[in-house]
Amino acid sequence: METINGLLDFLKQVVITTLSQLFWLLGLLFVFGFLLYIFARLTRITYVKSVGQKLDIIVTGWIGTPVHELGHLIFCLIFWHKVTGVKLYSPNAEDRTLGYVNHSYNPNSTYQKIGNFFIGAGPIIFGALVLYAIMYYLMPNSSAIFSGVKVEGSAFIREVRSDIGGFFITLWGAAKTTLGNLLRAENFSDFRFWIFLYLAISISSHMQLSPSDIKGAGGGLLALILLFLVVNLIILGIEAIGLSAHFGSWWNYVKLEHY
Q: Taking the model in full, what pTM does it have?
């Protein structure tokens, strides 16, 4: 019985470590992008009601669509997918598409299969990075915003390791803090805020993933999770049987749990 409990504790540690690493890799970026997405999306809803959807696509699409498609394209190149066609912005009234990136990959390549996740989720990842950049350079109080994000980010990691309920409470607190810093009264009198707002609305309104994006990302995410699980099984297994002592201080660089 003791052996079974020890094995279950070991597997639990592997799973928690894997989730923590994936959160470090993707979570903070997604959370930050999600908060900006909600802010810009709510603003855009009011805007669309005023000008209509067709004009909105013209006004926001010429910026948001290229960012969306570049999110796909960049990760296609990183993960060695063969790009067979690209249109960064080419509205098509017949199929209602604004742009596209067509690609193919080798199904026998684990690296390229993992790439499907990043390619599918590329508009969110790249879009969040672009939003991050324009906020850094355009928001008058960007230092206060990023300080808040850093503090909340540390809290996210603590909660994801211990209490998932506390994680969502922390997420809600981060949302209120970020939106509060964005909507400070003094920002409304600074022209840089309005440039940021337009760019943020244009980019975030086109960050949503299509059904095909989600399908491709799902398969890639499964491959990514399996890779992390296998690596952690090996590394934590080596530590559990005491072989890690032979690595000395180098073990801290090997053990992914510390990253």
A: 0.73
